[in-house]
Design a protein that fits this description.
By secondary structure, the protein is an alpha+beta fold. The chain has a single domain, classed as Roll (2,3-Dihydroxybiphenyl 1,2-Dioxygenase, domain 1). The radius of gyration is 15 Å and the shape is globular. Strand 6 and strand 7 form a beta hairpin. The longest helix is centred in the N-terminal third of the chain and has 11 residues. Bound molecules: zinc ion (ZN). Zinc ion binds next to strand 1 and strand 5.
């Protein structure tokens, strides 16, 4: 498996309305996209810094993963996402073969048209890890 860069860092927030101005006014980044991902019960806001994005995640359902995360741990870093050059499926298969526990056995659709798959934090030293590929990039 070949990872090319950190695609994004996912940060759980209670309110995009509060969080977006912090990133824009305090850190000077520009929010270029707000998108609801119904599948994951979140509303996301994206900022770009170099090749990497910051993905803010606001829960749209207390029973969703972000809703539960915030209830248990409060706001904070939720996951790190690596871009894989080999494609998500191949990378997931490779890791499963090496004994890594997967949340997703097959890629699914994430925000921004990416194909994504999550690894289980119990297998990744406590860091929820996401692999992504952009199907629109040359493969
Ligand atoms: Zn993500």
């Amino acid at each position: 498996m070949k990872l090319s860069h950190i695609e994004h860092i996912g940060i759980a927030v209670k309110s995009l309305e509060t969080a977006i101005p912090f990133y824009e006014e305090m850190l000077g980044l520009k929010c270029y996209s707000v998108e609801e991902v119904a599948d994951q019960k979140v509303k996301t806001a994206f900022f770009k810094i170099g090749q990497t994005k910051i993905e803010l995640l606001e829960s749209t359902d207390p029973e969703g993963a972000i809703g539960k995360f915030i209830e248990n741990k409060g706001e904070g870093i939720h996951h790190i996402a690596f871009s894989t050059e080999d494609g998500v499926q191949k990378s997931l298969d490779e890791l499963a073969e090496k004994g890594i526990r997967l949340i997703d056995k097959a890629p699914r659709n994430g925000a921004e048209g990416l194909r994504i798959g999550f690894l289980h934090p119990k297998s990744t030293l406590g860091v929820l890890t996401e692999l992504c590929e952009n199907p629109n990039e040359n493969k």
